[in-house]
Amino acid sequence: MLLVALFACWFYARRRAGAFGVDVSHVNLAVPLVFAVSLLGAEIITIISPRDAEFAGRILHGQSRFRLFGLLLIGVPALFVYSRLTGIAFRRLADLFALPALVWLAIVRLGCFMAGCCWGDLVSEPDAFAGIADPGLARQVLTLPWLPFDLLPLAVGFPAGSFAWQQHMALGLIQPGAPASLPVHPVQLYEMVLLLLLIASLRGWESRRIPAGMTAVATLIGYCVLRFLIEFLRADNPLLDANLTLNQWICIVLVVAGVLATPFIKRMAPG
Question: What is the percent of the chain where pLDDT is above 90?
């Protein structure tokens, strides 16, 4: 699914290149180059957050996780370097790739659902939930217990051996030999639908006369707001300060940075 998403991003960026005055040859070079370099970001996020490989209080998987914000951490500077080397305005390239990046992510989220990673919180509180001694772990699998989200038709149980199943087993919420995890929110599909709505909204935004760079900033802010809210229904990330995950704190920082950068971008000359 990563490869399908990458080709979809590449195809959409090629379709958009002419509108931004960028030759498609630059798309052909920049997409695989920036993506390959960005993979290093997954390792950096793991170093920044060593507990990221833990959930349910136990290390249940040791491999590095594929992290979106790790891609952003390396990918944006890589795209900036590419813009300097080619003489293309960075703001123009950022606008060009903003929406294709969301298309890439929407397809990746479908792959996440198929793989069982990035799983969601419990849909309802099980009888065994009171037996969890550590309240921090309880909040991780049911971050907002006061929400009226007893929506079993929207829930999904992942099969034995999946990440959600391992987490529920480690917490004692299911018995050994259980065929599936407890019902959880399919947050991967929630995010995919919200991403498609965001893409549609940003396409309308692009039809207006806006300064170069504003599409990229609007994309960043829009996704960070979306992701901040989705994180409340995800169970795969440990809670840090104020019952927020590392991703939520990153979202806050990026939204603030985007808002502060907006007036400067509006005053800059066309890219």
Answer: 48
